[in-house]
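Hello Y.,

Per our agreement to keep a running log of every chain we model this quarter, I'm adding this entry. I've kept the format consistent with earlier entries: sequence first, then predicted structure.
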Amino acid sequence: MKTIKDFDFKNKKALVRVDFNVPQDENLKVTDNTRIVSVKPTVDKILADGGSVILMTHLGRPKGEVNDKYSLKNILDEVSSVLGKEVKFVDESMGEKAEQASAELQPGEILLLENLRFHSEEEKGDEAFAEKLSKLGDAYVNDAFGTAHRAHASTAVIAEFFPSTKFFGLLMENELIAIDKVLKSGEKPVTAILGGSKVSTKITIIENILPAIDNLIIGGGMSFTFIKALGGKIGQSIVEDDKLSLALEILEKAKEHNVEVYLPTDVVIADDFNNEADKKVADIREIPEDWQGLDAGPKSREIFNDVLLNSRTILWNGPIGVFEMSNFADGTKALGESIAEATKLGAFSLVGGGDSVAFVKQFGYSDKVSYVSTGGGAMLESLEGLELPGVAAINK
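Predicted structure for the entry above:
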């Protein structure tokens, strides 16, 4: 893996693709700076070498048009604050102004280019656009794992113009190592927890990870498709009726790979889908007709806890209850506690996927697990066994 550790950036301008597609409030102030914080080690290393940094990123979906709402000048103060240094800004990402700002950049300085997606060529992976961007730096660094699954001009195509000076940033390196630990080099037993509402979105992940894991915990809404396929009564619980035979196939494949599958045995059910609904605990195979399952029950939590405390490598993707509603968050909280405890005992735990990451941030588990992935779609595609364009471009 070619990383920035392999290169001395003294008097070099590093063109660094980052993912600063951060959430903002109605006043366009950054509400979560995790993605900015996560690239600081890469920036620090380049500056410490005596190099300069040119940051390029997208923000939002301006669809190839200049839009003040998506201008990176709105996040400039936050970027400067996190990086601990005044960051210069140029209101274009290519062209004369950008070239002049780059030429004037001194060692130890940082420049932020304007939103790449103000140009439609970025998302099209346009080669001429990538070549113009490449003229701004002496080396290319990809530290944007969140967009590594996109074959865009700045995430993949641009690497062609840096045949010997293209590198992974430290964030990208950490992300790839974390995924490798789950899929290849992790200490056994390896346990994967897959939650969320639909089996259909997780099929290829399950198929790809089965040869690598020992235990599979299936929770959340997707568990009801499996329970119904096995003959259980699930009431009004969410289900994919067209995936019942697929659920049985997955269970069969798990057997072939000697993977132990754990489904919830009991569930917290409600008579309506809202936080104030009446609720009670029921056997997951015997849910009354007008009720629906919204959280893992106490027995299920105990079973999952036992499996996790005996695991050495853990992947968590997807909640096991409707944690957005406080009365149905206990199952996911208990799961978070179990993973935190297993991590404390020496297990490696990787959390990835939008809802799981949102949960660990909201409930303060980020520091209690080994690694929280910054890339939702990119991580899922990695787990599906797909080669990410942004990764392939550096490895060429």
